[in-house]
Structure formats: structure tokens, C-alpha cells
Design brief:
The complex is a heterotrimer of chains A (545), B (94) and C (213). Chain A has 545 residues and is mostly helical. Chain A has a single domain (29-509), classed as Cytochrome c oxidase-like, subunit I domain (Cytochrome C Oxidase, Chain A, Up-down Bundle), CATH 1.20.210.10. Chain A has helices at 3-6, 21-25, 30-58, 69-105, 113-135, 149-153, 158-185, 198-230, 243-277, 284-297, 313-341, 350-373, 375-381, 385-415, 421-448, 462-492. Classes of the chains: A mainly alpha (545), B mainly alpha (94), C mainly alpha (213).
């Protein structure tokens, strides 16, 4: 087969390689498994979104008049559990990581393809537990499962919810093991560590956190199950237990978990910014060091979730200081992305709009994190909407924006189709405005004292809640739009060339979609982000700008 | 000598290690009956660390020079240390 | 037997595949160590908070069962370690017999554990209304005892299935043990199960024996 023929979509590709249900459900092809994950996380994104839509509808009026308080508790709990463990944690790693990691390093598949399939089945098993939890009436402990409420007083399906999270956690661990082994053992000749795209580094750093943090969550929830089901005293104060031990063990995972959710997003943003500014990434090695630094220092900060729980003042001091430290590498990354834009030739395609959104929203989220790391301020705003706004700016404004950016960047590669650019740009801008309308008022009302997880509230907060709910409606539309035009693109979208964005990176050297073995010809490995000569960007005459 | 080296690698070293493990087991069991106050726990954990190291270095072949596996092997204990350090920072300063 | 039979996508050489499988298992072992970390952490905290309760409770575990089981697990570590070396040197049949010895020892561990659990329950050493000790923290000790040994026993069972798989798949072709690369990974997992028990043993069985600390 000639080289040109292999680059057209009529050529054999992984999508056409078997069309039975079995060829999908028993696949070991990392690209198909990525799609299986994508379907799962999309379904859960809309389940979590539906739950919170009902919450935001309830909050339009100060009285608790739409749903009962118990139902309200169940709604925000399932929103948290679903969004954290069944959407955000797997989102970029299990979809783009799975699809792109082997291709970006020049490999044929992940190190352990069958383990990869097991990861997906564990995700499905965990998802089944969650569905059973919903059918059994839901769980109302909050996604944080705090004791002693979860172990002794809640009358809801805590056991199945905890079991679901434990199972999906193992999916995470196995994916992490697979990615680490792949990155170490399967790089193509010439692909040295410091030639890896930052997306690969982001996935690698994430995998380190997944492997080391997730098991602690599994054990902690197992202890909750043991106390609740077998009545074994562990956290029960009346029998000598300490509820704070639960919080220490829970947050030992759950703080690094937020880095699991943001490190891949940072990797995606690096790819997009370099490509759409036509610039080499500024400070590549520092970007690498910062990814690893965030992953490691992220393990030292969890106590900032417990400043008012009864921790010692000395512990507060230590965790506050470490939380300031972890902000430094994040800030360096923001500066470097910004510096990458300097003297760039910027095109405002949809992926770049999402990346810009990330830069602004992640920065706001990160700065408000510093407020929260400051103990005197945290005492005032803890458990208020200020905290909710902070983490949504990072998780939604940051991670979800990056996810959508990646979706729009790699869609042609994954599906072999182009999507309508104007609709995509419109959706990106709509999302930015919808997001800010939803979450900025929450900073204000949190500061003014509006507590989180409250079903009814004093009337003076209503104006903020109405703004927030209106924003949420716009945000919902902005999320549904891509669903529509991506589906449209499957049937009517223009066939994508191998490299529609003229991007660097090995994934663009193969066809769109790629063949099952990823490459027809051995790819040529170069330095990453060779968008211009090392000295600087040049004009059409070849002169340095 | 080639035969002896061959046997050494094949079963002699593992069996010698096992004998050492049994001796350490007897030692830690016996010492637990000697009143040492807080020393009992320290001694028992120290012996456990020695036994674990023997299993890791000989049975799990960590004594063979392989930086990658040594890094992976070290990660677990280092992260446990991190957990103990920061949890302790709360409990021992209350 | 041709090496190509054992080669799996995406590996180019069997040697590389073997290295990767071992490395992957080591990374997984790191996660397993962190799984038990929370239990060790809880034990440390509660022991420092309730020294008398822990010492009193620690005396109630059966040191004979505990010590015998430790010896059994250490011996099974020996058998599987030597099995690996024999397999590598080409003595597949001997290696397979040692694997079966490992399984037998592992099963013996679980059987003894079962008898020990029954004895513990007869002594009402499960936290509840009939719990015999009144010291604060004694019940916490036993909560941790049941969970630590229970989770460990689950790991022993998974290990037995893995070693059993090796013995089963190599029944017709003993050289499969070396070729596949999964022997080393399975052995590493089994050694970890042994190491975890080596740490659990003093915490659960040697506490309070001297009457003081």
C-alpha cells in the first residue's frame, strides 16, 4: 500500500477493524478502550449534571420548596461522587491518555493491553455499584463520606456507594501502572525523556499520583464499610475512635486526587497553546519539573481541608505553608504558557479558545486557593460557597475546559472527521460566559456567609443564586452543543487529513484515524514543539522576528 | 567452582536467607517476653524491618543492580513515611 | 519451544517484555504497600493514644498460631523464590513442584487462620457486647486485628489463585514457566504478601507479651 493511500480514511483504521459488539467489548486496542471510556464518562457527566441542575433549580428560591432536604442532600452527594470519580478522574487519562500515550511515544499499544481492558471493566463494575446506589434511593453523606454520619447515622445506601468508589479506584491504579510501565519501557528509538510531549509528562505525573494515593482511599472506605456493616469501632468516638483519623486518611488521597484531575489538563493545554501560537513551549524543562513537583508536593498539603476540624494549630501551620509551596510550580506553568504566546502567531480555533479559558479560569481558581490556604481567611470562608467556587474554577473552568479543548484538538485524529468550526467557537465562548455567571457570584455569596450544602437560605442571598442558576442554564447549553455537532460530524463532517492543525507530535504523523498498529511507517522522532527554529520565530523571508 | 557458584545462585543463598529469617523469627518472638518497656516495640519493628529487607533483597532480587525496580520498591515505604510524618504532625502536637 | 509463542503486543523482544512485566508488578506493589499504609497509620495512632488497651488486647492473640503462620509464609516465600531460579535455569519440572509446595503452604496458612478465627470468636474477641476486655482501646486493637488479617487473607487468596494459574498453565509445558514472564511477577506479589505479614506479626502478636511494653 502506498504511503498516500494509508493517509486517507478509506485505508484500514482501528475503527473499521472489526464491527461486532465482541470486537469492541473484548478489544485490547488502546484506541478502542479509550472510546469505551469516553462513552462511560460522557454518560456519567450528564448524570452528574442532571443532579446538579435540580439543585440549582431548587436554589432559585430561598425556601426549600422543590425537593425535600433529604433529597437535596442526596443530589449534591451523587453530583460529587459521579463528577469526581466517574468523570473527572478518568476523563483525560482514560480517554486521551489511553488513545494518545502510545502513539505520542511511537509505540504500538500500552505495555499491558489486557490490563487496560480490565481497567475499563472495573470502571463499569464501579459504575454498576453507583447505579445500584441510585436505585436504592441514593446516598446523602456528601462525596466526602465524613464519619460518624456515614458510619453510624445515615440511613442511605452508603455501603454500595463506598463499594463503587473502591472498585473504580482499582481501575485508576491499574491504569496508572500501565501508563508508568509504558512510558518507561516503550519509547521509540530517539524518544528520550526530555523529548516527550508535555502531555505525556502530564499523564506520567498523574499516574504516579494515581498509584500512590488511590489505595489509601480504598482502605479508608473499606474501614467505613467495616464500621457500618460489622459495627467494628474505628472512627466512633464513644468507643475510643477519632473521626479526624477518617479525615486524615480520606484527604491523604482526595487532595492528590485533585492533582490527578488537573495534571493531565495542564498537559493538554501545553499541546494546544504551542500549536495554536506556532511557538515552541517556553521553558520546557521547567514545565516538566513543575509537573513532577506538583505531583509530589501535592501529597503534603491535605490538612488544608481540616483547618477547622480539630487539627492541632501546629499541623495547621505546616499544611498552610505546604499549600503555599504547591502553588509555586502551578504559577510557573501559567507564566510559561503566557510567555509561549509572546511573539506567537495566534489562531483562535476552538481548541485555543478553550485553552485561553483554562488560563484565565485556572489562574482565578489557583489564586483563590491561596486565600483558602491562609488559615485566618479559611476560618471565615470554610464550608461556604467560596470553597465551592474555588474548586469549580479549577475543576470545571480548568480541567473541563482542557478536556473540551483536547476533544476539539484531537477529534479529527480520533474519528477522522472535522467538526463545524464556527459552532465550536461559539460553544467555547458560551461556555466561558456561562461558567463565570454560574460560579463568580458564588465567590461573593460565600464571602458574605452563604454556607454550602444548604437546601434553604436567607433571602439576602437570592440574587446571587438566581444569577448562578441562570449561568448554569447557559453552561448546560454550552455542554450540549458539542454533543450535537460532534454527533453530526460522524456522518457529515469533512474527512480529516493526517495533520489538520499542522501540529508537531508523533500522533500527527499517522493517518486520521490511525491504523490498528498506530503507524504504517516508523515515525521520525524530533525535539518537541519544533514550530520554529530554536533561535526564535521567523517570518516568511526566513528572518528572525 | 562453576558448579558451586551455580548451586549458590540456584538454592543455597535462598536457603541461607530462610535460615536467617527463622532465626530472626525466634529472636523476635523470644525478645517479646523480655520486659523492655517501649523498647519492645522498637526491637520488634527493627527485627521485622531486617526480615522484610532479607525477603526484598534476596527473594525479590533487589540486590541485583536495577535502578528502576529499586525506585519503584522505594516509593511505597517513602510514601508511608510521608503519611506518618504529616499525620503525626497533627496527633503529636495536640 | 519458540520464543515467539510468548511474545505479546506491543513488545519487540521477549527480554524487554519480561523486564516490563516485572517493573509493572513492582509499581503495583507500591500501590499495595500504600493500601496497608492506612491500617498501619491507624494502628500507630491508636496505640499511642491507648497504650494500656493495646497491650492488654495484644496479649489475647494466639502467639502459637501467629508464629507458625509466619514460619509457613516465610517458607512459602523460599519455595517460590527457588522455583523461579529453577525455572530460569531450565529445571521446569522441579520448579513446578516447588510452586505446588507454595500453594500447599499458602492453603495451610489459610486453614490455620480459619481455626484461629474460630478460637478468637469463641473467646468473644470480636468487638461487641460480649467483648471480654474493658480497657479503652482494646476494642480498637481488635477492629484493626480483624481488618488487617482479613484483608491480608484476601491477598493470600488472590496470590494462591495467581500461583495456581502458573501451576495449571505449565502442566503440559514446564518451560512455559520461564518463557511467559508472569512467573516472576506472581512471585513478587507472593513475596509482598509475606512482607506484609512480617510487619503485621509483631504489631498483632508480640504486643504486650512481656507484661509491659
Amino acid at each position: 500500500m502506498s504511503a498516500t493511500a494509508s493517509l486517507t480514511a478509506e485505508a484500514p483504521n482501528y475503527l473499521r477493524d472489526g464491527s461486532t459488539l465482541g470486537s469492541w467489548l473484548f478489544t485490547t486496542d488502546h484506541k478502542r478502550i479509550a472510546i469505551l471510556f469516553a462513552i462511560g464518562i460522557t454518560i456519567f457527566f450528564f448524570i452528574g449534571g442532571t443532579a446538579i441542575s435540580i439543585v440549582r433549580l431548587e436554589l432559585v428560591t430561598p425556601a426549600g420548596d422543590l425537593v425535600s432536604d433529604d433529597t437535596y442532600n442526596k443530589l449534591f452527594t451523587i453530583h460529587g461522587i459521579v463528577m469526581v470519580w466517574f468523570f473527572l478522574v478518568p476523563s483525560i487519562p482514560a480517554t486521551f491518555g489511553n488513545f494518545l500515550l502510545p502513539i505520542m511515544i511511537g509505540a504500538k499499544d500500552l505495555a499491558f493491553p489486557r490490563l487496560n481492558l480490565l481497567s475499563w471493566y472495573l470502571y463499569i463494575a464501579g459504575a454498576a455499584f453507583t447505579v445500584i446506589t441510585l436505585i436504592a434511593g441514593g446516598v446523602d453523606t456528601g462525596w466526602t463520606f465524613y464519619t460518624p454520619y456515614s458510619t453510624m447515622f445515615s440511613n442511605t445506601a452508603v455501603l454500595t456507594a463506598a463499594a463503587g468508589v473502591i472498585v473504580v479506584g482499582f481501575s485508576s491504579v491499574l491504569t496508572g501502572v500501565n501508563f508508568i510501565a509504558t512510558t518507561h519501557m516503550l519509547r521509540a528509538p530517539g524518544m528520550t525523556w526530555f523529548r516527550l510531549p508535555l502531555f505525556v509528562w502530564g499523564i506520567y505525573a498523574t499516574s504516579l499520583v494515581m498509584v500512590l494515593a488511590t489505595p489509601v482511599l480504598a482502605m479508608t472506605l473499606l474501614l467505613v464499610i467495616a464500621e457500618r456493616w460489622l459495627d467494628l469501632p474505628i472512627f466512633d468516638p464513644s468507643r475510643g475512635g477519632d473521626p479526624l483519623l477518617f479525615q486524615h486518611l480520606f484527604w491523604f488521597y482526595s487532595h492528590p486526587a485533585v492533582y490527578i484531575m488537573i495534571l493531565p489538563a495542564m498537559g493538554v493545554v501545553s499541546e494546544i497553546v504551542a500549536c495554536f501560537a506556532r511557538r515552541r513551549l517556553f521553558g520546557y524543562s521547567f514545565m516538566v519539573y513543575c509537573l513532577v513537583a506538583i505531583a509530589v508536593i501535592g501529597f503534603f498539603v491535605w490538612g488544608h481541608h481540616m483547618f477547622v476540624s480539630g487539627q492541632s494549630a501546629y499541623a495547621n501551620l505546616v499544611f498552610s505553608f505546604m499549600s503555599f509551596m504547591v502553588a509555586v510550580p502551578s504559577a510557573i506553568k501559567v507564566f510559561n504558557w503566557t510567555a509561549t504566546l509572546y511573539r506567537g502567531s495566534i489562531s483562535f480555533d476552538a481548541p485555543m479558545l478553550y485553552a485561553f479559558g483554562f488560563l484565565g479560569l485556572f489562574t482565578i481558581g489557583g489564586l483563590t486557593g491561596l486565600f483558602l490556604a491562609t488559615v485566618p481567611i479559611d476560618i471565615h470562608v470554610t464550608d461556604t460557597y467560596f470553597v465551592i467556587a474555588h474548586f469549580h474554577y479549577i475543576m470545571v473552568g480548568g480541567a473541563v475546559s482542557a478536556y473540551f479543548g483536547g476533544l476539539h484538538f484531537w477529534w479529527p485524529k480520533i474519528t477522522g472527521r472535522m467538526y463545524p468550526g464556527s459552532w465550536a467557537r461559539f460553544a467555547a465562548i458560551l461556555m466561558f460566559f456561562g461558567f463565570n455567571f454560574t460560579f463568580f457570584p458564588q465567590f461573593v455569596m460565600g464571602y458574605l456567609g452563604m454556607p454550602r450544602r444548604y437546601h434553604a437560605y436567607p433571602p439576602e442571598f437570592q440574587v446571587y443564586h438566581v444569577l448562578s442558576s441562570a449561568g448554569a442554564a447557559v453552561l448546560g447549553v454550552a455542554y450540549l452543543l458539542p454533543l450535537c455537532y460532534f454527533a453530526w460530524s460522524f456522518f457529515y463532517g469533512k474527512r480529516a487529513p493526517a495533520n489538520p492543525w499542522q501540529a508537531t507530535g508523533l500522533e500527527w504523523q499517522t493517518s486520521s484515524p490511525p491504523p490498528t498498529g498506530n503507524f504504517v511507517a516508523v515515525p521520525a522522532v524530533t525535539d518537541p514543539y519544533e514550530y520554529h527554529p530554536k533561535e526564535g520565530p521567523i517570518d516568511v523571508q526566513g528572518q528572525l522576528l | 567452582m562453576d558448579r558451586r557458584a551455580h548451586n549458590n545462585e540456584l538454592w543455597v543463598r535462598p536457603v541461607l536467607t530462610w535460615i536467617a529469617l527463622c532465626i530472626l523469627l525466634a529472636l523476635t518472638c523470644g525478645l517479646s517476653y523480655v520486659p523492655l518497656g517501649n523498647g519492645n516495640l522498637i526491637v520488634a519493628l527493627a527485627i521485622a524491618a531486617m526480615k522484610a529487607s532479607l525477603v526484598a533483597l534476596v527473594f525479590m532480587r533487589l540486590s541485583e543492580p536495577n535502578p528502576l525496580t529499586r525506585l519503584a520498591a522505594a516509593a511505597g515505604p517513602i510514601w508511608i513515611f510521608i503519611m506518618f510524618l504529616f499525620v503525626g504532625a497533627d496527633y503529636f502536637t495536640r | 519451544m519458540s520464543e515467539r509463542v510468548f511474545l505479546r503486543t506491543p513488545w519487540e523482544t521477549l527480554a524487554r517484555q519480561h523486564v516490563a512485566v516485572s517493573f509493572g508488578m513492582w509499581v503495583f506493589l507500591a500501590s499495595e504497600i500504600l493500601l496497608f499504609a492506612g491500617l498501619f497509620g491507624g494502628y500507630s495512632i491508636y496505640r499511642s493514644l491507648y497504650p494500656h488497651g493495646f497491650l492488654a488486647a495484644g496479649r489475647e492473640t494466639d502467639i502459637v498460631y501467629g508464629s507458625v503462620n509466619t514460619a509457613i509464609l516465610m517458607t512459602s516465600s523460599l519455595t517460590i523464590a527457588v522455583a523461579g531460579r529453577f525455572a530460569r535455569a531450565g529445571f521446569g519440572a522441579a520448579a513446578r513442584r516447588l510452586l505446588i509446595a507454595t500453594i500447599a503452604l499458602g492453603l495451610l496458612f489459610l486453614v490455620l487462620k480459619g481455626f484461629e478465627y474460630r478460637e478468637d470468636l469463641e473467646k468473644h474477641l470480636f468487638p461487641g457486647p460480649d467483648f471480654p476486655l474493658a480497657q479503652k482501646g482494646a476494642q480498637l486493637f481488635f477492629s484493626l486485628y480483624w481488618i488487617m488479617t482479613g484483608v491480608h487473607a484476601i491477598h493470600v487468596s488472590c496470590g494462591l489463585i495467581a500461583v495456581g494459574r502458573l501451576a495449571f498453565l505449565s502442566r503440559r509445558r514446564v518451560d512455559w514457566l520461564w518463557g511467559s514472564g508472569s512467573e516472576e511477577a506472581t512471585a513478587l506479589y507472593w513475596h509482598l504478601v509475606d512482607v506484609i505479614w512480617i510487619v503485621l506479626y509483631p504489631l498483632l502478636y508480640l504486643t504486650g507479651r512481656s507484661g509491659h511494653g
